Amino acid sequence: MLIAHRGASCDAPENTLASVNLAWQRNVDAVEVDLRLSKDGCAVVIHDDTTKRTGGKNAKVKEQTLQELKRLDVGRHKGGQWSDQRIPTFEEVLRTVPEDRLLFVDIKCGPEIFPELDADIGRSHVRPEQVVLMSFELDTAAAAKRRHPEICILWICDPAGSRRGGGRGSAAKRILAAARQAGLDGLNVKARRTVDAAFVGQLKAAEMKVFVWTVNRLAAARRFRELEVDGIVTDRPGWLGDRLEPAAKGGPQTR
Q1: Which backbone phi and psi does 64 adopt, to 5 degrees?
Q2: Which of 18, 81, 111, 137 is deepest in the core (most CB within 10 A)?
């Protein structure tokens, strides 16, 4: 599975409708976006906790209303041709999802976003099996799973940051134990050389999904596919998809 990181973010401004729609046009299996909560409780699609890098305003997302956030041009930083792109709401992104594709959602805040997130999904045409929720915070991922047992929930983590003096095997065991205790469906791990056949094998043996981020080189993408990971998160979905041989399996699946 090819998953477009913040949309087709190599070519278009990340986490915008332009980037998301460009990814769908390139026939990706899934799009990944980041989610935060505005001051007035709207779920908005943006990665950073401030709007400085993409919108030019050095203020926290959670301290701005949706109206204030919508005034910002988050496309111009990528080039003049992308001017006038606005921070989309989660609801706006949900409207773009084709009926046979998936949406991966990286929750950048805590469980306080769940009521709004649930309401947006409930109002949309998107089915629960088309949504994958994930977080760097294990507690948030675990809370999401308790709230939504029917949705695929992933823990985003870096195996290198989980060794604590142990080797590769101990890191995999530690990560796996934490994910299983939380009742999660799988992991989205940083693409490192330490994510090898033994690492992936341990997770697969426990029936855990394994995704890797962020893979932008063809050689790395081929290596991870040989390891039979479930998906590759990339900034270059069109470029990479054109160069990878057709996958043996058809259609995106998370369950």
Answers
A1: -120, 140
A2: 18
Q: Is residue 40 part of a domain?
A: yes
Q: Both tokens of residue 150? A: 């029917």
At 13, the amino acid letter reads: P
- What is the CATH classification number for the domain harbouring 189? 3.20.20.190
Decide if 248 is inside a domain: no
Q: Is residue 254 part of a domain?
A: no
Instruction: Please indicate, yes or no, if residue 252 is contained in any of the structural domains.
Output: no
Per-residue pLDDT of the chain (255 residues; tens, 9 = 90+): 999 999 999 999 999 999 999 999 999 999 999 999 999 999 999 999 999 999 999 999 999 999 999 999 999 999 999 999 999 999 999 999 999 999 999 999 999 999 999 999 999 999 999 999 999 999 999 999 999 999 999 999 998 875 555 555 677 889 999 999 999 999 999 999 999 999 999 999 999 999 999 999 999 999 999 999 999 999 999 999 999 976 544 556 776
- In the three-class reduction of DSSP (H, G, I as helix; E, B as strand; rest coil), residue 235 is classed as coil
Task: Return the structure tokens found at 174.
Answer: 């530690």
| β partners of residue 156 | 188
**3-state SS assignment for residue 125:** coil
Q: Record the pTM.
A: 0.94
What is the C-alpha separation between 186 and 208, in angstroms, rounded? 5
Residues with Cβ within 8 Å of 197's Cβ and at least 6 positions away in sequence, in order, are 227
Domain residues for the domain of 144 are 2-243
Split into its structural domains, the chain has a count of 1
Distances (CA, A) of 207 to 45, 142, 192, 230, 243: 31, 17, 21, 11, 29
Distance CA 80, CA 240 (A): 25
C-alpha separations of 62 from 49, 104, 153 in Å: 8, 22, 24
